[in-house]
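Researcher: Excuse me, tokens okay?
***
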Amino acid sequence: MADKQISLPAKLINGGIAGLIGVTCVFPIDLAKTRLQNQQNGQRVYSSMSDCLIKTVRSEGYFGMYRGAAVNLTLVTPEKAIKLAANDFFRYQLSKDGQKLTLFKEMLAGCGAGTCQVIVTTPMEMLKIQLQDAGRLAAQKKILAAQAQLSAQGGAQPSVEATATPRPTATQLTRDLLRSRGIAGLYKGLGATLLRDVPFSIVYFPLFANLNQLGRPASAEKSPFYVSFLAGCVAGSTAAVAVNPCDVVKTRLQSLQRGVNEDTYTGFLDCARKILRHEGPSAFLKGAYCRALVIAPLFGIAQVVYFLGIAETLLGLLQPPQH
């Protein structure tokens, strides 16, 4: 079955709506993922996702969980739109001969989609990670200050108030990066982002298409929306866990600020080697369940918005009636 072509504006609007709803729902879990992935042995501030979120609310307030969300909400629309539209475009091009798409062609379309999206993903993640990780570094400084005070006072109970460090804003970070490193500064970790997003799309899109097909009644042209949602969730979480090692490396490479006694890295292989040597293989799965919890509803929602054709309805309402 050749994939039907949907108008590009509709694809972009659907991708945007899906991204905005998804990010708003799961951003706090994404923040926990970034902070857990950036923790190195001996400098642990958080023991789990729930511990991270509780401590974040306590020290930074409820909106502390949404640090960096503005960057994501601004850039997730073009990112999701590019990814979903590119996958549809490649699937359409590859099925023009009227033949059913083979698994290889589905993977090829996914690969194309993953490659296209990094144009927006890399700078978005770069800025988001700095904003999300600022709270972890501040908490770490506070703990170290408390420990130093404790030893200085010979075991007396310390006051844990450390001097509040000013938190950077996305605009400030962008300006500083452009000034010091040029446009390349925003694209730090591009290779790692490609190594995460291309395999993700290669796994996700064919898996989603096949799961969605399985749940489609023989008589219907489309799967029911709950099937699309579940297929998006299962495919998303499977692909997310599969590429988590690359996500850990990417998070570490894109973090400009380091905590006390934390390793610095020169590139992808150096980072992977040091993580393996100092933290063991399990470190590559840091934040994997957070990532699965983020990606599953994100892509589930995206596929529902896409399959319900919300944008097509909106565009239909905006069009003047035909006489």
User: Anything to note?
Assistant: Residues 103-152 form the longest helix (50 residues). The chain has twelve helices and no strands. The two ends are 34 Å apart (CA to CA).
